[in-house]
Amino acid sequence: MSKSDLLLELYSNLSTTGALTFSSKALVNKMLSYTDIANAKLVVELGGGDGSITQGIMDRLSPDAELMVFEINRSFCDAMEKQFPMPNVQIICDSAENLELYLKGRKVDYVLSSLPFSLISKDATDQILYYTKNSLNEKGKFIQICYSYLLKKLFGKYFSKIETKFTMRNLPPAFVMICH
Question: What keyword terms does UniProt attach to this protein (predicted)?
Fold first, then answer.
């Protein structure tokens, strides 16, 4: 799928993508700077989109580590399956609400997300954040890209420590929230 086709898909599904453009390389690098992906064993990405964050993860991920990418848009999933055919990458065309079904009790080093929580129902949001919190290992982190500082209060219901960073190097400028 070409970049223009991906953009068309993005704009056609604003209610589920929640973004005007894909994450910039600067934003992806900022998000990943709060991780140690090279030493991770299991990483989960919520909202794979065009694979911008996925590519950043794969550039850092050890070949013996595993990446699970959740995305509900079939077109994005198909494109990512072609872009990331590696055996240690699993593209899951399903809601992040079903995270626990795929983890089967395994613990995660990092959950990286660009999900549009402002557009997701309260019940689905609560389920995603509950399972995300419970899936992390004891040193694990949930790292969220978002466009509203108000989401910090939502994440505070599940995580006791939240660091907030900001970058202007994205359109629109974005927050990166690092939750422990």
Answer: Methyltransferase, Transferase
According to CATH, the topology of domain 24-179 is Rossmann fold (3.40.50)
pLDDT in tens, 45-87: 999 999 999 999 999 999 999 999 999 999 999 999 999 999 9
Question: What are the residue boundaries of the structural domains of the chain, listed by start?
Answer: 24-179
Please report which residue ranges of the chain form alpha helices under DSSP H.
3-12, 14-17, 25-32, 52-60, 74-83, 99-103, 122-135, 151-156
Residues 159 and 127 sit within 8 Å (Cβ to Cβ): no
Q: Per-residue DSSP letters for 23-58?
A: PPHHHHHHHHTT--GGG-SEEEEE--TTSHHHHHHH
* Single pTM value for the model: 0.89
Alpha-carbon distance 58 to 79, whole Å? 16
Cα 119–Cα 180–Cα 117 angle in degrees, nearest 5: 0
